Task: structure prediction
Amino acid sequence: MGRVFTLSSAEASKSKGLIQGKCFISGIPLLALFDFGVTHYFISCSCVEKLKLSMSSLNKDLVV
Result:
């Protein structure tokens, strides 16, 4: 079963199990948060818009 956690920037910076920092994707600076113990990553709608990515629906439910 998947799990979802939300963290503020301050909480993330104190966590020892996460890597947080700025990265550049297609020349656009973004804040990235990596947790190597997860099975899925999520991207915010604002990042999708900044990167001009297309979105599509999953063909099944994702239960988290």
Observations:
- The longest helix spans residues 9-14.
